[in-house]
Design brief:
By secondary structure, the chain is α+β, with helices and mostly antiparallel strands. The chain is built from 20 helices and 37 strands. The strands form 7 sheets. It has a 20-stranded antiparallel β-sheet that branches. The two termini are 49 Å apart. The chain binds 2-acetamido-2-deoxy-beta-D-glucopyranose (NAG) (6 copies).
Length: 940
């Protein structure tokens, strides 16, 4: 920043914030507790350092990040945030609250900084109490008119219509050149796929061409540093096409992020599949822009397509290099470098008199149908043969079309090759209006086939399905294996240019879009605020004993191994990228990608929490990127966003949506919480978190216990007495409510009320969590004793899964959040569960009248024991926890803790193998190690 800008924006403009303000004024008295008496309410200020995750990036086109704050530190709304570079130069900042403590004080904030020509190593963010300086220069101009929104960042201007099929009306450069128009979504699909066994002839297939239809285009209230335009709609048959008819489908939400002083738009494109798997086969999902090329000579029009590792295809529509006659070196060099060629009168006439004989290349296509290779081709026009261009391995995912004088547009897709099949089309480049289409799903690939992978194998009763579970570990039931309602989010970047840029500049930009720079505070600071959980600590090499160092080495190994497996096992693809697999097949040397519940992991036993907490404690970039890809996958693909299973997720399986176990344990928002806050409140994740508020109503449609209940023929769910698992369902529901409450979302008071009700009522069950099941009232949150124990005499029903989906973490958060408002009976119920799960049968019997029976996942449950040990300060119990961690089940200290390289005919490609690893143990060992070290590290 070379401008002396100063901003201390006392936020108060955004709609969400107004709600927050009202609530913190009027609602605060209801939640005051003794915790408030320890508030530090003096007039201090804080300066927090944020640094780039991967070190100083080459570009800063504006970014958003999150910061945590200690409870009570900034109690009111009169907090001013200001920012400077670490060299002390003032930087404009936009700030908003993403989360509040129970007492109303600020827990997390989001901040946006503008683009800048030079990039500092980091920033210092200052929070000051009481101040309400409003010195702020609006660098973004926004015109929110009746039919369109126009945004001018100072470095680009974009218009966003409020109706019709065009999401981006026009894109122009500061000098006023329009370099992109009519940006719309395109979708194509077909009603069937030709079956090689001959069942559906090609003639029976209908083909559909659809495009975006806008329902709403909206803009956030505060647009000062970052303007967010959100467009929602669906896809409809395009009026110009005379294809078969199709109902509107594939709802989309596309978010355009524009930063002050930035020449780049970040686009977050989210869709939900609402089709029918055996009737709707998508053959292409794209974003298309028209690029005006009027008046630009064909030899001054440039095609740039990113190849491998910063490489580029550098071509002109009418190439004048390599010809039999030479136009002159200056002409050749100018064209190759994308500069305006010297006036044609200066060229050798041997060339200038014969330009009409040189083919003009109208169309280019790059296609990435696998993570290992892409192909390229071009043609002069439709009806003529394509000419092959040598391709490569992994394309950078960016293309530019434009001219030396007219300017042009670059569009790129993050993780292009990782999300194959993808492609980029440039078309009509030899006409007055070229097109650039970025395909998030390539029409050159096979139709997207979301049908079940088997026909049911005759499993037409629960008894047969349960028996099949015994062999393939798949929990099958006809009709439940539907993709209807799953989603996917992609990130796209758009950048107008005044003239064709150098390919080095485009290479830098390609690098940028594939790892958009992230600002993060230091782990020690996050830890100290206690705003991201109190159950992890920052490793300290100086004080670490050899035993602690060994654990750290193991955690490091596990993270690197899984990151490496993504590459080695090619865990890539439109729907798959971001997930990993559940169990390994030691005989075939492959992960069990084709065996029921052993294939895609779908967050089984909380690997999400392991990798995010590992990021928090280390601040490591590789861990962040791994966790980021994972959260984008699990939050979208493994969960239903509409339809009968809305709000539930799917158990692990061969297809992400295939298993018939639909549960809140998979959709639980605690898995997205850290990313949400660290990212400054990623709006897509935010809407998914809030979207779970009615997940409990899905119990009325889907009974998770249907296959095992005795009254399976007659059971009709009663909304005031749903069978609720006090482990896996309880942890999901309470996470939904705590997060809605701390975000002060639109239904936060309802969330708080239900949360308090469930805590109180669980605490009054005779055996607390040990009860296993309760009767849940959807309207109030209350749980009553199970049907088998109407008089609350006490039931003992403990399973290894109850605490395995984020229960210890959400209870720790709730306990910390409520402070002295936590019902003591609830606290005791949890401490009892933590103590007795791993206690001896004799102790269990003495306490509950009977033993819990044989329980496993004891390594993972050692973190519950550790919690009880920390709370009671009981050293014997701490020792018991470490013993459970080191010497029961899971990964043993004597495990190899290494992988081996496999080559030769036993494997398809050379791979690293750790046959002793399972993802269940990866998750549990990782989480337990982190939490045990934080809670009872001294006892190791
Ligand atoms: C204000 O709070 C800070 C942080 O807790 C503390 O170090 C400082 O002494 C306090 N100042 C006053 C004047 O109370
Ligand atoms: C269109 O937007 C309106 C207003 O937000 C909403 O009520 C309606 O459900 C939306 N329609 C569709 C098809 O999404
Ligand atoms: C219901 O459960 C009983 C006992 O487990 C079983 O015999 C019956 O087949 C089940 N009903 C269905 C529809 O599977
Ligand atoms: C590590 O521990 C040493 C000794 O207690 C302490 O001086 C140092 O500040 C700690 N480092 C971190 C990063 O916490
Ligand atoms: C701790 O040691 C590991 C391994 O030697 C090293 O990679 C890491 O950077 C060290 N961490 C700190 C905070 O010094
Ligand atoms: C501490 O934990 C041990 C091991 O579980 C237990 O036997 C003992 O009773 C506990 N001590 C206290 C004071 O609770």
């Amino acid at each position: 920043m070379n401008r002396q800008e100063r901003s201390a924006y006392r936020f108060g403009k955004s709609r969400m914030f107004l709600n927050v303000l009202l609530c913190s004024v009027f609602c605060l008295p209801h939640v005051t507790g003794r915790a408030l008496s320890t508030l530090n309410t003096n007039g201090s200020s804080d300066v927090v350092d944020v640094k780039w995750l991967e070190g100083k990036p080459a570009l800063n086109v504006g970014t958003t990040f999150g910061l945590p704050w200690s409870r009570g530190k900034y109690p009111g709304d009169r907090v001013a945030f200001s920012a400077s570079t670490d060299d002390g130069e003032d930087v404009t900042i936009q700030s908003w609250v993403t989360s509040r403590w129970a007492d109303g004080s600020i827990k997390w904030t989001g901040h946006a900084i503008p683009g800048s020509a030079s990039v500092p190593d980091g920033y210092k963010i200052t929070a000051s109490k009481g101040a309400s300086r409003q010195i702020r220069r609006e660098s973004i101009k926004v015109d929110d008119a009746q039919d369109e929104i126009v945004v001018d960042t100072g470095k680009l201007k974009a218009s966003f219509p409020k109706s019709g099929n065009v999401l981006v009306g026009s894109l122009s450069t500061p000098s006023g050149k329009v370099v992109g128009k009519n940006g719309k979504l395109v979708l194509q699909s077909q009603s069937a796929v030709p079956d090689t066994t001959g069942s559906s002839a090609k003639a029976d297939i209908s083909y559909y061409q659809l495009e975006s239809k806008i329902n709403t285009t909206t803009i956030d209230e505060d647009t000062s540093v970052r303007t967010l335009v959100t467009v929602r709609g669906d896809h409809r048959i395009s009026e110009s096409e005379s294809t078969a008819t199709h109902d509107p489908w594939i709802p989309f939400t596309v978010r355009f992020y524009l930063y002050a002083n930035s020449d780049t738009i970040r686009v977050v494109h989210s869709l939900v599949f609402d089709g029918v798997a055996d009737k709707d086969f998508i053959t292409g999902i794209g974003l298309r822009f028209d690029i005006p090329l009027v008046g630009e000579e064909l030899y001054d029009r440039h095609i740039r397509i990113a190849g491998v590792d910063g490489g580029f295809l550098n071509e002109a529509v009418r190439g004048i290099t390599g010809l039999r006659r030479d136009p002159g070196e200056a002409v050749r060099v100018a064209q190759f470098e994308g500069k305006k060629t010297p006036d044609a009168s200066t060229w050798a006439t041997t060339v200038s008199s014969r330009l009409q004989w040189i083919p003009a290349w109208n169309d280019y296509t790059l296609t990435q149908l696998s993570p290992d290779g892409f192909t390229l081709k071009k043609r002069t026009k439709a009806g003529q043969s394509w000419v092959k261009i040598p391709g490569g391995t992994r394309a950078g995912g960016l293309a530019y079309l434009g001219g030396a004088t007219a300017g042009g547009l670059a569009v790129g897709l993050r993780d292009f090759w990782k999300r194959y099949p993808t492609s980029i089309d440039i078309s009509n480049a030899a006409t007055d209006s070229g097109q650039l289409t970025l395909w998030l799903y390539s029409p050159a690939g096979e139709p997207m086939d979301l049908r079940p992978f088997h026909d049911g194998l005759g499993q037409d009763t629960y008894a047969k399905q349960l028996d099949a579970l015994e062999i393939t570990y798949e929990d099958y039931e006809e009709g439940y294996n539907t993709p209807q309602g799953v989603g996917r989010t992609n990130e796209i970047f758009i950048r107008p240019f005044e003239s064709t840029p150098s390919s080095d500049e485009l290479a830098t930009f390609t690098e940028y879009i594939n790892a958009p720079p992230v600002l993060v505070p230091q782990p020690e600071y996050i830890k100290q605020t206690e705003a991201a959980g109190t159950y992890w600590d920052v490793p300290n090499n100086t004080t670490a004993t050899p035993a602690v160092q060994t654990l750290e080495t193991h955690l490091d190994f596990l993270n690197k191994f899984y990151q490496g497996q993504v590459e080695g096992r090619r865990w890539f693809g439109f729907w798959d990228y971001g997930d990993f697999m559940h169990t390994y097949d030691v005989d075939r040397h492959v992960w069990r990608y084709d065996i029921g519940g052993y294939a895609w992991d779908n967050s089984e036993l909380s690997p999400d929490l392991f990798i995010w907490n590992y990021f928090l404690r280390t601040g490591r970039a590789d861990v962040y990127r791994f966790a980021e890809a994972h959260v984008r996958h699990t939050s979208e693909v493994d969960i239903y966003h509409l339809g009968p299973y809305s709000g539930f997720g799917t158990r692990h399986g061969v297809q992400h949506w295939g298993d018939s176990a639909k549960q809140i344990r998979v959709s639980t928002p605690i898995y997205r919480q850290i990313f949400y806050y660290v990212s400054g409140g990623d709006e897509r994740i935010g809407e998914l978190l809030h979207g779970l508020m009615d997940a409990d109503k899905t119990f009325l449609t889907v009974d998770p216990r249907r296959k095992i209940r005795e009254d399976n023929g007659t059971y009709v769910p009663d909304p005031t007495a749903i069978d609720l698992d006090l482990g896996i369902d309880f942890s999901g529901l309470t996470a939904i409510w705590l997060i809605e409450w701390e975000r002060r979302g639109p239904r936060w008071e309802e969330a708080r009320s239900k949360l308090k009700e469930i805590l109180e009522s669980l605490g009054s069950l005779k055996n607390g969590f040990v009860t296993g099941l309760g009767l849940y009232n959807i309207n109030t949150g209350e749980v009553k004793p199970p049907a088998a124990d109407p008089e609350n005499k006490g039931i003992v029903d403990v399973t290894h899964l109850s605490a395995s989906f984020g229960l210890p973490e959400i209870v720790a958060q709730i306990t910390h959040y409520l402070g002295d408002d936590l019902p003591a009976s609830f606290d005791q119920a949890w401490l009892d569960y933590c103590y007795y799960y791993g206690a001896s049968a004799a102790e269990q019997t003495a306490r509950y009248g009977q033993a819990f029976g044989k329980l496993n996942l004891r390594q993972g449950h050692s973190r519950l024991t550790a919690y009880a040990a920390k709370r009671s300060g009981n050293a014997t119990l701490a020792a018991r926890a470490w013993n459970e961690f080191l010497s029961t089940d899971g990964f043993a200290p004597t495990a190899p803790w290494s992988s081996v390289s496999l080559t030769g005919s036993q494997v398809l490609t050379p791979v690293d193998e750790a046959a002793w690893i399972t993802t269940n143990d990866f998750a549990l060992y990782g989480l337990a190690a982190i939490e045990n070290l934080a809670q009872i590290g001294d006892a190791l």
